[in-house]
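Re: folding output
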Amino acid sequence: MHSSILSILAFLLLQLPAVSQGRYEIKEGDPNGINKWYMGRQIAHVMSHYGINWLERETRDKEENSGLLIKNLDIQPGMMIADLGAGSGFYTEKMSKILSGGGMVYAVDVQPEMIDYLNNRIKTEKLTNVKTVLGTEKTIPLPDASIDLMILVDVYHEFSFPYEMGKAMYNALKPGGKLYMIEFRAEDKSLAIKGLHKMSEGQVIKELSAVGFTFEKNISNLPIQHCIVFVK
């Protein structure tokens, strides 16, 4: 009994820093999420490396119109690009193959298994302008003001520390650099994606504005996702 009480107290103490900062709320909710909320939104569970087959599914190009998404990015020669939550490298590979002029794609992920998969993909496909970066839940190990373009595809809603990661993203971008937030549209109730793995335009703007980003536009030409652009 005594050890159980101590365990409960220890758990509560771990939550105090977040609660005292007024950023996160700990409470139960949708079982598809962690019991942590930010700005009225429950944070979703992270999709593990066991989901690589889903990331690489044959229908993904058509479902998401990946070619149009890449066109939206307006990639220029020599750009320094960060693909946050790169996962299997589905979009990393596509950006790498059109990037020229000495540019680089930094494929960032927090799961060592994803980094291993990415490193194998880089070697197999001979992607000479891609570097993998193992990040953490709160940090992006890239120099400040080093990135021209940052893209997050269906990943931000899984960040356990969205405020801290938002600040890290802001710091890594160059002044005038752009962030492209790609998220399944919560406004589309017919979309067969779990609710916590979708986000509304309003929620995305609210959260990114809180860490200093300026909303530029929502390129609303993708079949099932927002393509929301922010500027530092």
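--- second protein (sequence, then structure) ---
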Amino acid sequence: MMRAILTRCVAIGALLSLLAPHQYGADVRKLSLNEAVQLAISQNHSLRIARLKIVESEQKKAGERASYFPQIKDAANADDSTGVDHLVIPAGTLGRVQGQLVPGSAVNIPQGLHHLLLNEVSIDQPLTQLIRIREANRIAAAQVAISRADLKKAENQVAVDVHRLYFAVLTAELQKRAAEEQIAYARQELKENTEGVRNGSLLRVSGIQGDVDVLEGQQAALTADLQVGDLNTELDDLLGLPLDTKLDLQPIEAAGADRRPLEEYVQAAWANNPEIASAEESIKISRAAVASAKSAFIPDVTAYASDTWQNGVPFIVTNFGTVGVRLNYHVFDFGKRRSAVREREAQLSEAEENLQRLKDSLSAQVDRDYNALERTKNLVAVADQVVALRRESERLSKNQVTEGVVTVANTLQAASATYKSQVDLLQANLNYMLAWAELKQTIGQTPGL
């Protein structure tokens, strides 16, 4: 009864694996780790948005810079009046000439036309406002630098994410192969147990256990296969590739530069980490904002010149020019400007404190990454020793099969254990390389480039 149920489960599992839809399209792309990092940095959607943010900030800075120069304006009016004032000169206002009144009768002089055309061209040059304009330009320049630091931070993060997914895919593929090795061993053991049950040398429970081992191996292989598919799709999205692109990732060997003293990495992080650069630019923004707030106590003085043309007012010349200086000043605002200055000073103190916080946090992060390098390096050494012992065990097992001491299943079991130890060694090597990548990210370098 139990054997029939297990056999049916095996059949159902095989049928589901055959009916499962293909996850990948026909495209297969070979990639090395460095190629994957470069592809992600050039095509990742988030990084493209970050680059457009830089362009946005640069254009804003260009707009602020234009405020240094005079503004030329033109204003035109076309008016139609329903009534026009008149100047009336009564008869005799100018006296008499040879007994005749001058003027001889009342004169009605209209004071303009019903239609008035007025056009004024002016040029304004800010003077004292140049203080605020200068600070606004400094703020815009700092915002450009912050957007570039944000791009660098995003590039470093994407590079580390590529390392993680790349290593995860390689590990999942090896785990799948290790599960297949386990299935081969379980099937051979099942075959030998079945023969033992028939001969009466083994109990029936041995055959049932063999079926369970085969099913567990198939379950592990199927799980690893699904994991490979999910990770492949996730890596496609990170690289900016079509999601149905199957990736053929090239194997890699563990590599890492010799470790330098911890203090050197801390200094490198303070000098190159994009978060530190962004915090330093934020301090510049806050200082410029303080200076701009203080400049509000200075009157706005503007030099201007204008040219006016009109057609409709008879006692004003048709075209005339004006040159002058304009002053605008808020005499009293109930402490609004003073409060603004204090607000900006508080923001400056916050920015300076945030920079110190980031430096302390980065120092701790560098220390953790530095220690992770040592731990993962030791794990690699241990895993390498395990592989050596497993290989020796497999060699002895093969010799024992030749001598008839052990069965073929024992040899397959030793081979499966060897393969699993190799998977563990690869995982240890990948963790060591990932630790290097994370340390490079912390000190402001892009891993893989």
